[in-house]
Amino acid sequence: MPTVSVKRDLLFHALGRTYTDEEFDELCFEFGLELDEITSEKDIISREQGDTKAEGASDVILYKIDVPANRYDLLCLEGLVRGLQVFKQKMEAPRYRRVSPASSEPQRLVITEETTAVRPHAVAAVLRNITFTQERYDSFIELQEKLHQNVCRKRTLVAIGTHDLDTISGPFTYTAKPPGDIRFKPLNQAKEYTAQELMSLYKTDSHLRHYLHIIEDEAVYPVIYDSNGIVLSMPPIINGDHSKISLNTKNVFIECTATDLTKAKIVLDMMVTMFCEYCEEPFTVEEAEVVYPDGRTCQYPELAYRKETLSADFINRKVGISESTEHIAQLLTKMCLRSEVMSDGEQIEVEIPPTRSDVIHACDIMEDAAMAYGFNNIPRTTPRTYTIANQLPLNKLSELLRQDLAAAGFTEALTFALCSQEDIADKLLKNISETRACRISNPKTAEFQVARTTLLSGLLKTVAANRKMPLPLRLFEISDVVLKDESKDVGARNNRRLCAVYYNKSPGFEVIHGLMDRVMQLLEIKPGQGNGYHIQAADGCVSPVTICGEMDGLKDHRGMKRECRGVED
Amino acid sequence: CIPVLSTYPILKTLLQRVEKVDGGLDSQDVATSLGVDHQAIVGAVKSLQALGDVISAEQRSSKHWELTGEGCEIAEQGSHEARVVSSIPEEGMPQSQLMKLAFGKVGFSKAMSNKWIRLDKGHEGGPRIFKTVERLEDLVRDKLLLVQKGQASQLEEKEKNELKKRKLLSEVTVKSYWITKGSCFSTTITKQETELTPEMIASGSWKEKKFKPYNFEAMGVALDCGHLHPLMKVRTQFRQIFLEMGFTEMPTNNFIESSFWNFDSLFQPQQHPARDQHDTFFLSDPAQAHEFPQDYLERVRKVHSEGGFGSQGYKYDWKIEEAQKNILRTHTTAVSARMLYKLAQQEKFTPVKYFSIDRVFRNETLDATHLAEFHQIEGVVADFGLTLGDLMGILHQFFNKLGITKLRFKPAYNPYTEPSMEVFSYHEGLKKWVEVGNSGMFRPEMLLPMGLPEGVTVIAWGLSLERPTMIKYGINNIRELVGHKVNLQMVYDSPVCRLDS
Questions:
Q1: Which residues form the B5 domain (chain A) (predicted)?
Q2: How far apart are alpha carbons A352 and A304 in whole angstroms?
Q3: A388 versus A48: which is more confidently predicted?
Q4: pLDDT score of A555
Q5: A464 CA to chain B: closest CA distance, Å?
């Protein structure tokens, strides 16, 4: 869940009132947000780097607010305030409009064929006559970062570039070139670098190094030029220094390059809807034209308003309430989904604004109605669904056996299903190839290399970790191991096992033998050859035990002289 | 301490003495006056205490003077100097002969300074000693005798210190008991039996016997028993609750799952961060799953990439290669998806209630409360016309059985449920609302491609088994609960699990 950090006083000023921390927490809860932390820059620095570093830092109070992962429209102060004000019916949701430039042709971004191989999509828009303040500017930069981390999937899907339009001149060209052929002065650097040089320069950059892998191995890198050959950006890594925006920037050119066009459109819509409020004509966005390699042209931002029609009955039935059509329309309007009752008095026409890309189905609208109604105001009812419960036979047997094994004086262990290859092979004098073990491709440590093929290693590790306990130790576990199995759709299956270990200064084979007899008795299996069970010695192991054809070898644990013996069935 | 027969006379005497005095007695004094070792009296006191409230004894300590070994010898035979005088005949004795006596050296110098003897150095045949007094008063011996009789108080401090310097006296701290009558005081005592024997019952002698009361202060004998693991005890209770509520157990014994069933079938897009290498364990062997229900797979592809079933879809290029990737399942909801698909294949839909409690795996950063594997508890209900209110009602009943009565719900986001609700309960100890689970209605984009009828709603909720167990058993570090580093003593000592109390 992304966390948005906003200055408390700024937030309250924008909301037109103050709240106590508790009141604001409550409001967040209702709206599906979470007031995660109340802090200040000073607090954060002093926690992370010590008090001395924090000296002089701002002690303005910050609210850190957790936002649901699909609500990109709440990732900045502007969006949060708009959402909450509409929710509290203090204002109506603004209507975002795409406009053509007053006296000229729209800005054009021409995509060339070369981008297809590396990052084929681009969209663009212009914020005309915008007024930045320090706070607005900071929020503008911060929103780009939040979008990059979330919907843009760390810039892999989409990368945003924002430019001072008055420093560059269109039409712009989005192309891709060999890294050696790209040369420009990147943001906040003093000199020009080639793309190759930049990649090595940023290898050590704590922020940018995480994005290098996206294009590093490509033959060509994406790059955007203006009509004079000035580099706007080399997405998804860095913008040019030439076109960087500042507090004095009046006209902003925004481009989003992408591997996923749907996401690019969403991101562009978010950037412009959140900040067009500060344009001379609020809530308008100047269009830009994107020309595709095949000659097609598209106008962006889309700022598409979609209409859905659904019935009040649908919402009432799904939520479990019985509200009038009018009231439900009001509830939805509170959630920025402007709704009107249609002439039949039953259907509602809901308008989904460009800011609500999370609404993709009627069920999303239904949820918003339920949220506006208040989840905790919904009557709690009992479904009449009549069913008979059944236990899974395998689990039923496991539960019964557990009880009886404890009654036999053995203590239940609970060990991990994942372990190292060594645990199930070398340490048990087995070759890994004969274990039928499933391997994990991306373990962070050796503890998670394979899924266990035996319970014994976990029990022996439990013994080893509890050597200070009085002897004897009698342990058992009933749980699943995982074995490769071609006949299954995933190529593997679980196998339920019982394993027990007796650990003492004297061998006590008769104890574990006795437990095995008891288990067989509980399972109504008689001793004897044929249909019954019997024990026979096996080769190659220190003290092997074979039961009913299943075999598990054993060895002294980690060179200790005491005997450990186990059976597994 | 069972009174043994030989101590009986002492017990009796002690009781008689206590009976006679008004206030109480000091055990030391009793020992002195009876001429027995103090330890014998202490033993008697303890025996009497064990019989109940016959006497009451309060421990006290006092200082007192005692003769050293040498002091005892002097009290018996006289001081060294007196013995020197008495061993010298009228005609005197050669000094060398006197020095051979055991008391000679010390006695000689003391007797000299007392002027009881004189030394004739010039005597022919060597230095010779003569006594100068006929009768003498052996004050040292007299003083020691006083101390021995327990009358040290008659001596002055200076005298006692003098004798102490000569290592004839020492000051010792004495622990003693101040003995008074108890509420059940009696001078007669009966021997107490500790155990009822078959012989006593057979002979009827038990009727006359008195039995020693049990010592309820001590712990009983530690039994040699087996134990169930606390997490599994809690698991059993949750299982029981689901069964009581009519939920059928799902077959979750498949840790390895395809991305298709774990994510795609749940309408979780292929670029979702949960499908990242950082969050999920992928398999290198067996790396891929095969055999998917082809027409269903096609409907899943379509709803992701193009939409349908009333949905806009995610509009991205859905790839079969991503769906085929084998993983360790990240939630048991993968099994729920398989079960719901199976349900949809029935000729006629029947309502179901399903549950499971089993292991899930996350390639996460580990800390005191997070492991790479944990147990997920999941409940699912599928029926026509279920409402969000029904989900909240069922959750209310479920948590009620856990002893949690105050619940509230927070809107949340989850890719495969809409609406999604986080479940909060009021924690009386922390005085705040804490998250106890997650819940929601499965999205139509998940259910309709499976082939479930349009009007069927599926509500579901989940929580971890470890968290309530850690709270229940007061465990702060998850490694002490799960895995081989478990503290077996904790397993041995853990109480039964009643979640509702």
A1: 303-380
A2: 8
A3: A388
A4: 30
A5: 8
Residue A28 has pLDDT above 70, yes or no: yes
pLDDT digits (tens, 9 = 90+) for A357-416: 999 999 999 999 999 999 999 999 999 999 999 999 999 999 999 999 999 999 999 999
Nearest to A491 by CA among B338, B258, B362: B258
Q: Map tokens 């266990």 to a residue.
A: A452
A494 neighbourhood in chain B, CB within 8 Å: 253-255
- pLDDT at position A154 over 70: yes
Integer Cα distance of A22 and B159 in angstroms: 82
B484: nearest Cα among A460, A147, A122: A460
Residue B380 · residue B275 · CB < 8 Å: no
User: Comparing C-alpha atoms, which of B404, B434, B405 is closest to residue B422?
Assistant: B434
Query: Between chains, do A465 and B485 touch, taking CB under 8 Å as contact?
Result: yes
Question: What tokens does A31 get?
Answer: 């709206």
Q: What is the pTM of this model?
A: 0.79
DSSP B366-399: PBTTB-SEEEEEEEEEEEET--HHHHHHHHHHHH
Task: Say what angle helices B139-148 and B157-165 make with each other, to 10 degrees.
Answer: 100
Chains A, B: CB contacts within 8 A come to 280
A515 touches chain B (CB under 8 A): no
Interface test with A, best of B241, B253, B490 (most A CBs within 10 A): B253
Q: Nearest to residue B408, comparing CAs of B418, B423, B419, B394?
A: B423
What was the ipTM of the complex prediction? 0.88
Contacting residues for A102 by C-beta, under 8 A, at least 6 apart: none
Q: For residue A96, give both structure tokens.
A: 């975002």
Q: Which of B492, B284, B433, B452 is nearest to A466 (CA)?
A: B492
Is A492–B286 a contact, with Cβ atoms under 8 angstroms apart?
Answer: yes
Chain Cα centroid distance, residue B172: 40
Q: Which residues of A touch B314 (CB under 8 A)?
A: 262, 360
B67-70: long-range pairs with CB below 8 Å, 24+: B67/B144, B67/B147, B67/B148, B67/B168, B67/B169, B68/B167, B68/B168, B68/B169, B68/B170, B70/B167, B70/B168
Distance CA B400, CA A101 (A): 62
Of residues B315 and B97, more confidence is placed in: B315
Cβ distance B335 to B253 under 8 Å? Answer: no
In a 3-state reduction of DSSP, which class is residue A277? helix
Q: How far is A439 from chain B (nearest CA, A)?
A: 5
Mapping DSSP to helix (H, G, I), strand (E, B) and coil, where does residue A308 land?
strand
Each residue's pLDDT tens digit, A456-501: 999 999 999 999 999 899 999 999 999 999 999 999 999 999 999 9
Chain B within 8 Å of A407 (Cβ-Cβ)? yes
At A218, list the tokens.
């490509």
Triad A404, A406, A409: Cα angle to 5°: 115
What value does the mean pLDDT take over residues A208-229? 93
Q: Which of B410, B446, B456, B458 to mutate to test the interface with A (most CBs of A within 10 A)?
A: B410
Residue written as token pair 């701290």: B173
Answer yes or no: do A68 and B411 touch at CB < 8 A.
yes
For chain A, state the CA radius of gyration.
33
Lookup result for tokens 């969209």 = A123
Task: Tell me whether residues B410 and A68 touch, CB distance under 8 A.
Answer: no
Answer whether A294 touches B (CB < 8 Å). no
Which pair of tokens denotes residue A333? 């309007």
Q: Quick check: A450 and A418 in contact, CB under 8 A? A: yes
Contact B492, A411 (CB under 8 A): yes
Q: Which residue has better confidence, B356 or B477?
A: B356
Q: Do B253 and A451 touch (CB under 8 A)?
A: no
Surface-to-core class of residue A171, CB atoms within 10 Å of its CB (0-12 exposed, 13-18 middle, 19+ buried): middle
What burial class does residue A39 get, using C-beta atoms within 10 Å of its C-beta: 0-12 exposed, 13-18 middle, 19+ buried?
middle
pLDDT band at residue B93 under the 50/70/90 scheme: confident
